[in-house]
Design goal:
By secondary structure, this protein is mainly beta. It has one helix and ten strands; from the N terminus they run αββββββββββ. The termini are far apart.
Length: 127
Amino acid sequence: MTNQPESFESVVIGDGVFVKGTFTVPAKAVVNGVIEGDLTAEEVLVGPTGKITGRVSAKVLDVRGELHNNIISEKSLIIRSTGKIAGKVQYVEIEIEKGGEVQGTLNQTAPGAPVGLEAPSQTIVTN
Protein backbone atom coordinates (compact mmCIF):
# COMPACT_ATOMS: atom_id res chain seq x y z
CA MET A 1 0.00 0.00 0.00
CA THR A 2 1.29 3.47 -0.83
CA ASN A 3 2.00 6.21 1.66
CA GLN A 4 -1.40 7.89 1.99
CA PRO A 5 -0.30 11.56 2.11
CA GLU A 6 1.80 11.09 -1.05
CA SER A 7 -1.07 9.36 -2.84
CA PHE A 8 -3.24 12.47 -2.33
CA GLU A 9 -0.71 14.54 -4.28
CA SER A 10 -0.06 11.95 -7.02
CA VAL A 11 -1.76 10.89 -10.23
CA VAL A 12 -1.86 7.68 -12.27
CA ILE A 13 -2.79 7.74 -15.95
CA GLY A 14 -3.69 4.13 -16.65
CA ASP A 15 -3.02 1.99 -19.71
CA GLY A 16 -5.57 2.86 -22.42
CA VAL A 17 -6.36 6.31 -20.94
CA PHE A 18 -5.84 9.42 -23.10
CA VAL A 19 -5.71 12.90 -21.55
CA LYS A 20 -4.98 16.29 -23.07
CA GLY A 21 -4.06 19.51 -21.30
CA THR A 22 -1.65 21.01 -18.78
CA PHE A 23 -1.06 19.06 -15.57
CA THR A 24 0.74 20.07 -12.37
CA VAL A 25 1.24 17.25 -9.88
CA PRO A 26 2.76 18.07 -6.46
CA ALA A 27 4.34 14.63 -5.98
CA LYS A 28 4.47 11.66 -8.37
CA ALA A 29 2.92 11.13 -11.80
CA VAL A 30 2.78 7.58 -13.17
CA VAL A 31 1.91 7.47 -16.87
CA ASN A 32 0.94 4.20 -18.53
CA GLY A 33 -1.51 5.88 -20.91
CA VAL A 34 -1.12 8.86 -23.22
CA ILE A 35 -0.74 12.54 -22.34
CA GLU A 36 -0.83 15.27 -24.98
CA GLY A 37 0.23 18.46 -23.26
CA ASP A 38 2.46 19.64 -20.45
CA LEU A 39 3.25 17.77 -17.25
CA THR A 40 5.09 19.18 -14.24
CA ALA A 41 5.71 16.96 -11.19
CA GLU A 42 8.26 16.20 -8.50
CA GLU A 43 8.76 12.72 -10.01
CA VAL A 44 7.52 11.24 -13.30
CA LEU A 45 7.48 7.54 -14.13
CA VAL A 46 6.57 6.74 -17.73
CA GLY A 47 5.62 3.06 -17.91
CA PRO A 48 6.29 0.80 -20.92
CA THR A 49 2.92 1.68 -22.48
CA GLY A 50 3.14 5.37 -21.51
CA LYS A 51 3.61 8.19 -23.98
CA ILE A 52 3.85 11.94 -23.36
CA THR A 53 3.95 14.49 -26.17
CA GLY A 54 4.62 17.97 -24.81
CA ARG A 55 6.76 19.65 -22.16
CA VAL A 56 7.68 17.42 -19.23
CA SER A 57 9.42 18.89 -16.19
CA ALA A 58 10.39 16.99 -13.02
CA LYS A 59 13.21 16.52 -10.55
CA VAL A 60 13.33 12.82 -11.35
CA LEU A 61 12.27 11.26 -14.67
CA ASP A 62 12.20 7.47 -15.12
CA VAL A 63 11.33 6.54 -18.71
CA ARG A 64 10.24 3.07 -19.81
CA GLY A 65 7.88 4.37 -22.51
CA GLU A 66 8.09 7.44 -24.77
CA LEU A 67 8.68 11.17 -24.26
CA HIS A 68 8.53 13.67 -27.12
CA ASN A 69 9.28 17.43 -27.32
CA ASN A 70 10.81 19.34 -24.37
CA ILE A 71 12.07 17.32 -21.41
CA ILE A 72 13.54 18.93 -18.28
CA SER A 73 14.99 16.88 -15.44
CA GLU A 74 16.22 18.96 -12.51
CA LYS A 75 18.00 16.02 -10.84
CA SER A 76 18.13 12.69 -12.67
CA LEU A 77 16.93 11.28 -15.96
CA ILE A 78 16.84 7.50 -16.35
CA ILE A 79 16.07 6.00 -19.73
CA ARG A 80 15.34 2.30 -19.31
CA SER A 81 15.98 -0.34 -21.99
CA THR A 82 12.45 0.11 -23.39
CA GLY A 83 12.51 3.91 -23.10
CA LYS A 84 12.57 6.34 -26.01
CA ILE A 85 12.98 10.09 -25.84
CA ALA A 86 13.02 12.58 -28.69
CA GLY A 87 13.37 16.34 -28.55
CA LYS A 88 15.19 18.93 -26.48
CA VAL A 89 16.43 17.45 -23.22
CA GLN A 90 17.88 19.24 -20.20
CA TYR A 91 19.28 17.17 -17.35
CA VAL A 92 21.72 17.20 -14.44
CA GLU A 93 22.44 13.45 -14.36
CA ILE A 94 21.55 10.92 -17.05
CA GLU A 95 21.55 7.13 -17.18
CA ILE A 96 20.73 5.21 -20.35
CA GLU A 97 20.29 1.46 -20.13
CA LYS A 98 21.34 -0.71 -23.07
CA GLY A 99 18.50 -0.53 -25.59
CA GLY A 100 17.29 2.89 -24.43
CA GLU A 101 16.90 5.37 -27.30
CA VAL A 102 17.64 9.10 -27.44
CA GLN A 103 17.16 11.44 -30.39
CA GLY A 104 17.53 15.18 -30.23
CA THR A 105 19.44 17.81 -28.33
CA LEU A 106 20.93 17.06 -24.91
CA ASN A 107 21.95 19.82 -22.52
CA GLN A 108 23.64 18.96 -19.23
CA THR A 109 23.30 21.60 -16.51
CA ALA A 110 24.80 22.01 -13.07
CA PRO A 111 22.65 21.14 -10.04
CA GLY A 112 20.58 24.17 -9.03
CA ALA A 113 21.09 25.92 -12.38
CA PRO A 114 18.14 27.83 -13.82
CA VAL A 115 15.63 25.64 -15.65
CA GLY A 116 15.34 26.29 -19.37
CA LEU A 117 16.36 25.00 -22.74
CA GLU A 118 18.21 28.07 -24.01
CA ALA A 119 21.76 27.11 -22.98
CA PRO A 120 24.35 25.66 -25.41
CA SER A 121 23.64 22.07 -26.20
CA GLN A 122 24.97 18.93 -27.78
CA THR A 123 23.13 16.84 -30.37
CA ILE A 124 23.27 13.10 -29.78
CA VAL A 125 21.49 10.36 -31.70
CA THR A 126 21.63 6.74 -30.49
CA ASN A 127 19.97 3.60 -31.75
